[in-house]
């Protein structure tokens, strides 16, 4: 039996959607096939995002920034979750009518100012917000991760 596919979508696919992909894979990868993409991918994941996730014992170094267009006509998602307003507004309509669609807005680590330490601290807050939101969503799916 195939697992339901989940797509996390944001603008650049360099931060929020990557963290959500890593979290869901870590918390409930046995239940879902997990993807992320951007409407305007940046081509890489922010270093502070990778560091913040490693602190949570989640290695996203094998993930990469990709366009939502890679999935057009190829993948049917059971869940499409946008994590920023831009993705919500600019996502190809086919994805927003596919399966269940939810919008979870989070602050964008790519827009954080300051030195590396302050950007990392702000990124940690977003990482933790994403974890809390995913755990709540999983509970609604009848799944309780360890």
Care to describe what's here?
With 146 residues, the chain is of the alpha/beta class. It has one domain (5-140): Rossmann fold, CATH 3.40.50. The protein starts with a strand and ends in a 6-residue tail after the last helix. Helix 1 links the parallel strand 1 (5-10) and strand 2 (33-38). The protein has a four-stranded parallel β-sheet. It is globular and about 45 Å long. The chain contains five helices and four strands. Helices cover 39% and strands 14% of the residues.
The CATH superfamily label reads Response regulator
Taking the sheet with the most strands, its summary is: 4 strands, parallel
Helix share bin: 25-40%
Give the ordered list of helices and strands: EHEHEHHEH
Give the low-pLDDT segments: none
DSSP summary: helix tally: 5
Shape: globular
Classification by helices and strands: alpha/beta
* Averaged pLDDT: 89
Which value, in Å, is the CA radius of gyration? 14 Å
Instruction: Count the E strands.
Output: 4
Fraction of residues in β-strands: 5-15%
Measured distance between first and last alpha carbons: 23 Å
CATH-derived architecture: 3-Layer(aba) Sandwich
What's the CATH topology label?
Answer: Rossmann fold
List the helices and strands and how they pair.
Blueprint (H helix, E strand, L loop, with lengths): L4 E6 L5 H13 L4 E6 L8 H9 L23 E4 L2 H6 L2 H4 L3 E4 L12 H25 L6
Helix pairs in contact: 1-5, 2-5
Features:
146 residues, Rossmann fold, four-stranded parallel sheet
Structure described in brief:
With 146 residues, this protein is α/β, with parallel strands linked by helices.
């Amino acid at each position: 039996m195939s697992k339901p596919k989940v797509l996390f979508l944001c603008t650049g696919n360099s931060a929020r959607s990557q963290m959500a992909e890593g979290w869901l894979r870590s918390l409930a990868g046995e239940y879902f096939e997990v993807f992320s993409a951007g409407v305007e991918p940046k081509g890489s994941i922010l270093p502070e995002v990778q560091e913040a996730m490693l602190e949570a014992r989640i290695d996203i170094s094998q993930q990469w920034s990709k366009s939502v267009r890679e999935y057009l006509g190829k993948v049917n998602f059971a869940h499409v979750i946008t994590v920023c307003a831009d993705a919500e507004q600019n996502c190809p309509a086919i994805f927003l009518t596919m399966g269940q669609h939810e919008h979870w807005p989070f602050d964008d680590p790519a827009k954080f100012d300051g030195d590396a330490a302050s950007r990392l601290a702000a990124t940690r807050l977003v990482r933790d917000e994403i974890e809390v939101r995913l755990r709540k969503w999983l509970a609604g799916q009848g799944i309780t991760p360890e």
